[in-house]
Amino acid sequence: MSARPTYSIVAPVYNEVGNLRRFYTEVVKALDSTGASWELIIVNDGSSDGSFELMLELAEQDSRVRVISFARNFGHQIAVTAGVDYASGAAIILIDADLQDPPAVIPRLIAKWKDGYEVVYAVRAERRGESFWKRFSAKLFYRLIHRITDINIPVDTGDFRLMDARVARVLRQMREQHRFIRGMTSWVGYKQTGVEYVREERVWGETKYPLRKMIAFALDAVTSFSFFPLQIMIYISLILAVLSLLVGLVISGLRLAMGEEFFGGQATTIVLLLLLSSFQLFFLFVIGQYVARTYDESRDRPLYVVAATVGLGDAQVANQRVTVKTEGITNADAALADADSEVARDAGK
User: Fold this and answer.
1) Cα–Cα dist 26/20, whole Å
2) 80, 150, 209, 230: least CB-packed within 10 angstroms?
3) Every domain of the chain and the residues it spans
4) pTM exceeds 0.90
């Protein structure tokens, strides 16, 4: 049985054949500079452009490359989850393979981990090559989610981060279907800090988060960590009730003073009914989002289906089988993960 690596790099991939080889090269350069053992877990999220074949080639050339291939496309957050499930390192680093998050930043994340931090997230100080709308909407989203949730989700951060093995252990027990990894790692707690970096322009390919997916992702984030949309309904209802009462009193007074012809006809009534109906339909949509997610959780389906793995031995498979269960893991597993984490951290100092 091979020794557990110090670092596990988890990289979800969906149609990134033009970036994958350069990504691998830069990961090797960054991780070899640490002088510690490492593994690169690439998760093929149903790619159809030849990415999987290139993954197999990389795994054949380098035994430190492991491949998990899904039976179909399950989505970015699920792919990240699968990588964490199979990772066995004392520290696990999440990074996309599109090279917008530079692997050269990884040693800086590791340095903070060696200083005693259990979660080190990368903060986007600058976003190159993105449109004004993309930058504006991203800033608005991060600040909105920061304000309406009960946990401290750092602004201007993505999934690019390092987590200690004990954090990953807790994350494996959180099996909700609609996942928001950056919020989940914040919810776990422990000692956390950030490292600023410049997010690079995409060199090859196109974004895997168009507007439709961004809206769905935002809904997952809000409904997973906040009841604010439900709570705000009561305030809007009270405001509408007060306005209706005031408008009714004003109209009644004007009719008494100026005659029944004043405000005659049905136009005002129709406008008010349309306004109230739009609010009601919006409220039903918000409630429906929470109900639909509750239904998804009640079905208790597996988060993903693995079609094939490469380079993952019995140790990793056994670890995944135990930790994926909702009842958690044994005290022996927890002690082993903590011990590995401390040994690796001390060895790096």
Assistant:
1) 10
2) 150
3) 7-207+303-348, 228-299
4) no
Q: Taking Cα atoms as reference points, which of 333, 326, 102, 294 lies closest to residue 200?
A: 102
CA gap 103, 199 in Å, rounded:
11
DSSP string, 236-288: HHHHHHHHHHHHHHHHHHHHHHH-TTTT-SSHHHHHHHHHHHHHHHHHHHHHH
**pLDDT tens column, 46-81:** 888 888 889 898 988 988 999 999 988 888 888 999
Residue type at position 281: L
- The answer on pLDDT for 37 being more than 80 is yes
Q: CB under 8 Å to 15, separation ≥6 — which residues? A: 47, 48, 49, 51, 205, 208
CA distances (Å), origin 34, targets 25, 38, 114, 168: 15, 9, 12, 21
Find residue 9's DSSP bridge partners: 40, 93
Q: What is the separation, in whole angstroms, between the first and last Cα of the chain?
A: 26
